[in-house]
Specification:
alpha+beta; elongated
């Protein structure tokens, strides 16, 4: 009985495009927050909050890429890539507090409307829309990985927030109906709430060593068991090292131990090319060993 390991890592870029997008988004989020405060617009401040969410997401992706390139250390043998899950957990809690504040303030504004500078809201929101389009363009030309795809989803949601703020400013400027501001603020808050709850769920799932959401243990086990020379797979475990790197351990029962080198190569290619798993440990066994459970562990 022996074990084969593959701890191959693809060095990830420090994410130049992510840092560029982070800088643009953060600076304008602060500008928009100040403008929303001065214009007395919850819709604008809500959109600024959504952009801050984007900044956190971009920051997590950029910092995680940088930390992942540092590799393993004496005290962290898996590296520091998991820091993105801790940051996502913290970001989620902060954003839930922000959403609660905006919703409460919106209800107060609906009951006791206050004047809003509609033309300021419109002008700033239009600039915000252009900034978001620029960020989306930058991300589309950068690295194609799970971090940039997730960041792009945040930016798309923020585009909707900018459109909502523009509508609020135009309606107030043209009709003077200031209640549109808290109404759209609640709408923007729901956008933030949806993405925040999803982020929170994924962070907790990963920190609890849950199976990566894009992988099925049953599918992985069946594919591995179908490799020629393999009699069965058991004690299979899948978890996330980072948001873009899954780890696997499994016991592989083979018909002939002499065939293990060729079986291992087939397993390596299967795990990398079909499932994107580069970090795995395979324990080879012969069929005469003690009975086992062939059900993958979730």
């Amino acid at each position: 009985m022996s074990a084969s390991h593959d701890h191959h890592h693809h060095p990830r870029s420090t994410g130049k495009t992510l840092f560029m997008a982070l800088g643009l988004t953060t600076v304008f989020a602060l500008v928009e927050a100040v403008a929303g405060w001065l214009a007395n617009s919850l819709a604008l401040m809500g959109d600024a909050g959504h952009m801050i969410t984007d900044s956190f997401a971009l920051g997590i992706a950029a910092v995680a890429a940088w930390l992942a390139n540092r590799g393993a250390t004496r005290t962290h043998s898996f590296g520091l890539g998991r820091v993105e899950f801790l940051a996502a957990l913290l970001n989620s809690v902060i954003m839930l507090v922000l959403v609660a504040y905006i919703v409460v303030e919106s209800v107060v504004r609906l009951l006791s409307p206050e004047p809003v500078e509609g033309h300021v809201v419109t002008a700033v929101a239009v600039i915000g829309l252009l900034i978001n389009l620029l960020v989306a363009w930058i991300l589309s030309r950068g690295e194609k990985n799970v971090n940039t795809r997730g960041a792009m989803l945040h930016v798309m949601g923020d585009l909707l927030g900018s459109v909502a703020a523009i509508i609020s400013g135009l309606v107030i400027s043209l009709t003077g109906w200031v209640k549109i501001d808290p109404i759209l603020s609640i709408f923007i808050s729901l956008l933030i709430l949806y993405s925040t709850i999803r982020l929170l769920r994924e962070a907790i799932h990963a920190l609890m060593d849950g199976v990566p959401l894009d992988l099925s243990p049953e599918e992985v086990q069946q594919a591995m068991a179908a490799v020629p020379g393999v009699r069965g797979i058991h004690d299979l475990h899948l978890w996330s090292l980072t948001s873009s790197q899954a780890s696997l351990t499994a016991h592989v029962v083979v018909d002939d131990l002499q065939q293990w080198p060729s079986v291992w190569e087939a397993m390596r290619d299967l795990l990398r090319e079909r499932f994107g798993i580069d970090h795995y440990t395979l324990q080879v066994e012969n069929p005469d060993m003690e009975p086992r459970c062939d059900t993958p562990h979730h």
